[in-house]
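Weekly structure sync - notes
Attendees: PM, LS, DV (DV joined late)
Agenda: review two folding runs queued last week.

Item 1: First target. Sequence and structure tokens pasted below for the record.
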Amino acid sequence: MIEIAIKKHVRYLFGIAILVFILNKFYLRPWVLKNELPEFFQIIVLSIPNLIEAIVGTLISIGVLFQLRQYIGMEVGIFNDKIVYLAAVSIAGLYVISQEFKFHNLGGNNVYDPYDVYASIIGLILTLGLVQAFGFIKERKTNIANS
């Protein structure tokens, strides 16, 4: 199977999202809560994990679906990139939103907060917009002489 070439901006987004999650968990959130900053800042630092979960979940789902598409051998016309993006956002959205409403507890000890739902939705929409606008995989160059 040919390796899927993921665009550089997608790899950067993934890495930055993980870095923001770690910095928020170990530094920013404890500092904001310890210093009792205004509620706005507390909402932000408490909802960042949901935003990151939606972004990372969508990116991983897109990658898995592209691999699946390649493995199955579906032609682009049947299962094009936009369908992959929408399916991935749907899968990630189903996971992150259902977790907030306690349909499952796969992500750990979860407390319902409407701001977490908003952060998840923002992450899903943001990621969908970015991959729709800039793509996810590099276009393969085809040799015209072999076509």
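Item 2: Second target, run right after the first with the same settings.
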Amino acid sequence: MQKCDGSVKYYGKLSNFMLKNYTVMDNADKMERVCGYLRMIERTRLLKNTIEELQQLVGFSVGSGNGLARKGGKSLFMKDAIFRELAHIVRQQTGLDLQEVLDAYIGADRICKRMGNVADPELFCQHLIWHFYADNAVTDDIATIINKVEAEQLPILVLLILKLLPRLSAKGGDVRNILQDYRRLFCWLSATVNKDILIQKLPLLTKIEDEIRHNPDSMCRIHLISIANQILNSFGTLSTRERISISNKELLENQFAPEVDGIWTENEFSTVFWQFESIANGYHLYRWQFDSARKSLMFTKYFMKFFHWADGTMALVTHPHAIHYLVSGKPMPNNLFAYLDCQIQVDDNRNQVCAISFNTQSADGQWFTLRQLRRSEKEEFFRSLLDDERYEKTNSHASDDYEFTLSLAAITGDHLYISKDETTYYKVPKSLNNLLEEVGFNSNAGVMSFKNTSDGEPATYIVFDDFNLYYDISTLELMAEHQIEVVDSISV
């Protein structure tokens, strides 16, 4: 079986019902299959938590002896139409392909039957996820089934083992407490997907928890499958440095640079104004607060990138303090970055961006309170303040401030050369990490310098930002530890 690479490969396809098999099946086989699907939907309470709710959905009685599979009598067309409509509803509400979910459910149930009971279901499922989504070694408890599980079956198999979905042989009836099932799933997911990632909590987990709090009516078993699939795939993109580098590449392919350099305001009468400054890999976004009486300008410098995403635009804004977690390799608190939905408005007459609105995607990003910016009509005035030497400019996060220079000079078979100055280079061995073999001249690689660290000492790092690799070269001892040398020529 192929391991899960963190991308939604299976449940997002918009195939027509039975498209793959219809051409080779006779009507009797087709009738048997569609009736089996309809009975399964009803028996597992997959779409609705109670028979009464299912009856409201389909608009007719689904009582004992009068189930979904009996509707339409002997008409394959009518039964197929019922299934197609249910599949359409599922696709609209969850993005899942109903037939693929049912086929995966059947396959996962067969695996459960062969497995029997496991001693520690939660740990067993964690070992499955850490192996398939995070490349962990095979543990003894999962060794007998890993070659039997297909990737599309894995989220459903986990839910079956955790008893959050019923076995196909079960006759449990209506769902007793779907909220409790969600709580159990989130508790298990939190312990599973927040392990050994570069952030303290998976952002999508927080986002989905928020969505359910605001829309509790969405809770049902097929939605449970959907969110398990989404969260596990998201974990798969962040679970190792190798997978993060793949995700970063996908993000970079969607990154774009709108022409937003200049002065912006939320309110022209405020003493606060904002400044976008384009840099090699994104933008510095300054928040300036001026005090005319004290002749002072206090600023905070954020980092921001824009991406084309789904059907719109997304921005990622990073708090200045986040850089210390990145360079140290410590898990970053979720309140140091925010994913924002953006709407960019263009003035056709001036052919320039004139307004940007922001909306945080989850509660983790609520710390970034900016909601709308417009190009300032008083740009010249604010520029004059920035140029006025009588105004003292004070960085509110001076110990977090750094300079990052893209300075990859050469790539050889065994080394990367980063310019130190006009005549010397840092010679970095690729053997430090296998990801360094993937560094190219389009990579964000160079030197990062901190002038004012918390202990008062300057610090310098060799940075491969796309791969989250940061090497401290502040002292000769640290350079020697990483086998990084300063040389005056490039050796092929």
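Discussion on item 2: The chain has a mean pLDDT of 90.
Action: LS to circulate a short write-up before next sync.
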